[in-house]
Amino acid sequence: MSRARVGTCTLVSEIVAKTESFRASLDKQPHEVASMFDGVAKRYDLTNTVMTGGLDRYWRWATRRALELRPGERVLDLAAGTGVSTLELAKSGAWCVATDFSQGMLAAGRFREVPMVAGDGTALPFANDSFDAVTISYGLRNIADTDEALRELLRVTKPGGRLVIAEFSTPVFAPFRTIYMEFVMRALPRVARTVSSNPDAYVYLAESIRAWPNQPQLAMRIADAGWSAVKWRNLTNGIVALHRAYKLG
Ligand SMILES: C[S@@+](CC[C@H](N)C(=O)[O-])C[C@H]1O[C@@H](n2cnc3c(N)ncnc32)[C@H](O)[C@@H]1O
């Protein structure tokens, strides 16, 4: 085999290997996702703030505003992890429960004074029509069956209740989108190596952001699950999108 041919084969096998590891990391089984989050739990909050340059706080504040919570309302924060998202929602005076299937994430946030219930987003441990509002921040992308989670969220919401999803999305300004996707794919895992206890989780994060539906595509998935009046708002040029919808009364 000529040198050029060896070079070509090496390149092709590298591309195949990279594609396979890309698929393997995105096709995680639910127990693999749970154990990945168990692994990053202790430094999760700090890593988030470092990696987003503090923007996570603004995005959480905007999520609470979009939910328009009132004191005394019952709210489910699904995929709540350490409860950092739930604590922000509880500032409204609503009763907010954090649910997640990673015992490690819940344990890392046990010091927070929010109720926590272990549970899987695709088989929620709550009765029909239990909540005035349901929400999920940076978790829907991680749930193996997105559509089932959207249907479960609908089931546990009271008629007339609302949904807000905060999730990484697609920047709307094309030149920025290109730079951002390169940043996410290349820089994020390197930065994570210096601050996270499990940098591989951030390779998964970057890959899953690239593979995630854009704003209109996600809106269609939400509507297909049975939610009404789906709209979205971009934060920070669409790095994050807030999708909002209602359960028909
Ligand atoms: C990126 S964290 C988000 C945590 C928190 N909501 C926040 O805003 O920082 C994603 C969470 O989704 C949880 N998760 C993934 N799949 C899940 C499922 N099927 N059921 C419940 N939680 C799930 C993970 O355990 C993890 O804690």
UniProtKB/TrEMBL annotation:
Its EC number is 2.1.1.163. InterPro entries: SAM-dependent_MTases_sf (IPR029063), UbiE/COQ5_MeTrFase (IPR004033), UbiE/COQ5_MeTrFase_CS (IPR023576). It comes from the Bacteria. GO terms for biological process: menaquinone biosynthetic process; methylation. S-adenosyl-L-methionine binds at residues 82, 100, 120-121, 137. Keywords: Menaquinone biosynthesis, Methyltransferase, S-adenosyl-L-methionine, Transferase. Pathway: Quinol/quinone metabolism; menaquinone biosynthesis; menaquinol from 1,4-dihydroxy-2-naphthoate: step 2/2. It catalyses: a 2-demethylmenaquinol + S-adenosyl-L-methionine = a menaquinol + S-adenosyl-L-homocysteine + H(+). GO terms for molecular function: demethylmenaquinone methyltransferase activity. Gene3D superfamilies: Vaccinia Virus protein VP39 (3.40.50.150). Belongs to the class I-like SAM-binding methyltransferase superfamily. MenG/UbiE family. Methyltransferase required for the conversion of demethylmenaquinol (DMKH2) to menaquinol (MKH2). This is Demethylmenaquinone methyltransferase.
